[in-house]
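Methods: example folding runs. The two proteins below were folded one after another, and each record is reproduced exactly as written to the output file, sequence line first and structure-token line second.
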Amino acid sequence: SILLCSDARGNRALVKLLQQRTPEERGEPQLERAAEIIAAAPWFAESFAALRSESTSKAEQAMDLARAMRLVTYEPVAEPPNLCTKGEPVPAFMVIVRGSVAATDDPLVMHPSSGSRTMKGGQWFGTEALTPPDPFNAGVANAATSNIRPTGERLVLLQLLRTDHLRTLAVQSQREHRLYADVLARVPMLKHYSCRQRTALAATFNHAKFIDGETVVEDASRSKAFFVLLRGCVKVRKTLHVGVGLSYPIGLKVLHEG
């Protein structure tokens, strides 16, 4: 969860664009430039690429983050607060712009000279906050794996709260459902559906990927799922039995997108 980012200068440039504390106060040119910097940042590629849905582009995901990320400053205090506490939920994903933090697996050892690791500008932590909720997991899905707190100097962070991150995932989900609804509108057997009905139906779909040559359905008559092709094509084949132990496949048709 603790990785090195080589572009500390890019993070500082991002700070200048996100000086306003709320996304609503940021102008569109600021957001667009911030999104460009985010899209080029190593922490974005490392931590967010896998979270991008099929219907959301890299630029759209970066813009979502530009709207959601906030600038947070911690002034030096005698007893700095924990930013992450091992075993407890991580509240936010954070990128260090200025200052440093100390991380350790031992809650009683927090000083950099006492066996902890020090992270400085250009590094990030709190990727556990990006873990999607798991209704089947009784434990804490986004529990911290380390104790992290400021080292005592002024600390400036770019912060993405977990609650805001979950909202961006919801936005991606809405884009995905709109894409599905558009695709379903072109399916002949669903033409009698109203727009509202197709939108409701789209919400029940999810993505499935198959590699070249992989079997999607073994026996169509027993399939428990309905598929619509978004990309690629599939071959429909039937096995012809000509005798005991003798059979061979026959290609019936090729299905394309839509």
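Second run, written to the same file directly after the first:
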Amino acid sequence: NADNILEENFILNLEQILKKNKEIKVLSTLNTVANNKSFFGSYVDLQNKYRLRTDDHIFRLINSKFISFTEGFVVKKNLYLESGGIPVIRGDDFKAGEDFILADMIREIQPNGNFSSNLQIKHFIPEKLKDFYYNRFIRGYGTTQVNFYYYNTEIINLFFKTLLKNILKLIYIISIFFPLISLKQKLIYDTNRISLFKLFLIYCIEQVAIIHGELKSLFKIIILKLSNKTSNPEYLTNQKKFRLYVSSSAKNKFSALK
């Protein structure tokens, strides 16, 4: 993605890792925040540090067979093509979650996956409120899309599941007490001196944006379903030509090329 920076000698280090272990077919890398001193960047940086320093991260890697989509996701070309690549939905293009689907499809092939903390990708976090909000909004939008188009959740189940989940999330946020307790635990990994109030403020912005995205995506799918205009995901395995994704960086999560 265009909002990432490769560390110096990334390609050289990658080649050395692959030469030492030729069995590796998929390699996930370490993600860090490039602008970790900015208002929103410091929040995401803290979340990353907390995730990396907890046992949950290790268990997730093990459960995913060390095939976890990261900003520096490396996969053999033939394996990528066999998996079907990044899916496309006609009339309701994925705003997010297509990378999750790609990793899941690759995981089903059961290749030899690995993770390297020696390879680092620095990721830029949007610094303006409207950009950060949109970045989180599309995450929520993509969650509903993945449930419907990839997991084939029935529209009635999707409606009640999405609605109930977000009602409970709103109750949790409004309680204030429980989010503050959770966020306070993460402050032990803070190196930017973030105040608990600032952390809670950004958390609320993030969660509201995700809820907004999930609900808007839900009603878009309902409208398409009632109009009989929903379509199945299209994969590379069904295409005779290779696809190259180009999009405007301002509109599609700052990614100029995918």
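Comment on the second run: The chain has a mean pLDDT of 87.
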